[in-house]
What does this fold into?
Amino acid sequence: MSSILENIATALTAVADVPVEASIFPRLSDDDLVLVQAKLAELRRLVDARSAAAAAHIAHRSRRELGYGGLAQRRGHRTADALIQSVTRSTRQDARALMRVGAVLRESQVEADSPQLWFGNIGEAVARGDLSLAAADAIRTGLGMPGDRVGTESLREATRVLVTSAQTLDADVLFTKARALRDQLDAAGIADREAERRARRYLRLAPLADGMVRLTVLLDPESAALVTDAVDLVTSPRRGGPRFVARAEKSRAEELLADERTTDQITLDALVGMVKIAGDADAGTVFGNRRPGVRVLVSARALERPSGHGRIEGRSDPVSIETVERYACDAGIVPIAFDDDGACLNVGREQRLFTARQRMALGARDGGCLWPECRRPPSWCEAHHIDHWHRDHGETNVADGVLLCRHHHMLLHDNHWQIVRRGAEYLLVPPDSIDASRTPIPLPSKSSALGDLLVEQRVG
Ligand SMILES: [Zn+2]
Ligand SMILES: [Zn+2]
It folds into this structure.
């Protein structure tokens, strides 16, 4: 056995002798417990440095020009990172980080005398166990490569400063600091780096087998500022944002804290809401002639009963009849007739429950989602028809509609709540499962404008 392996075997035995039993830790003082953590981190840095060094050599023996004769390739892997991932049983990302830092280490030694070498400080600190792999990676990527405007000399000086501050900073802060240093050294390059970051932005939709779609997004800083601000506004009480003084804001915050959805679910619902609002507001600029929307296909019989299911156009999974009704409620239907062979006979006129003008009237009257405690404005709302709309085909009256936000409209249909009208008053009737007596809850208007008007009329 080589001496490297002998040393590692000894170290393994020594580390395995450090107890992990729960009974040991309560006996440690606070100072000792923290010291144990710090010393283990030091141990890990030393181990990682050696692991990175080995990774660099595996990469070197697997380099492209060796073709199928390379080390990784001979062992059935396409690349060195695949071999390293398999041997270390870690993620591909971890394997690549090992290789990156390993390359820094290797070059620091092989090219130690080269005037071009600027990251020697990083390599030495890693080898000593002073710098974690994450910190080394942060400094290296944060500083970037030498270029026309920033020579190796100033980068070398920057690494010296950063390696020293690494004793007290975590890798994230270190990266920010390295970036700031580079910006200082190379003010003229700020625009280039901004463009480089912007070029990396993307949004990808990946359909999954179960009908869900995974969205992966990388936002450039400018786009991130807008999107983050919007998401923060929607969820800030959840994220420990500012405490609100104004009464309306305070109750909005309380409502959000009590919301049974997770913060991530609220964020997604808000983004979907934004797309919907944009679709309603857009005058052919972003979306061209068509507006984004969801088309639901259902048989007349299923809708009439109502039972069975419908389907969302372009998606393979069925949706419940409650969801179909909710769409019919808000967006109306277009009847399409087929004969028994499946040939299309004719397409009827669109039957919308509420015209655009009626929607405006609903907005002025309700002032937003009528659901108790909900504060969504009219622009976030869908129109709900309080009677089962498909049962009578008469004129649709504004009095038969109320505004509900998407979330509460969904809740109402899915859990079989009901809204009834008594004169000018609307009442929410809970399902049996929530309130056996089904006591109606009043749904007063949230429209301040309507309040003003009523006061005026009373006074006048
Ligand atoms: Zn509805
Ligand atoms: Zn609502």
User: Anything to note?
Assistant: Residues 369, 371, 374, 376, 404-405, 407-408 surround zinc ion (ligand 2) (CB under 6 Å). The mean pLDDT is 86. The CA atoms of residues 138 and 173 lie 9 Å apart.
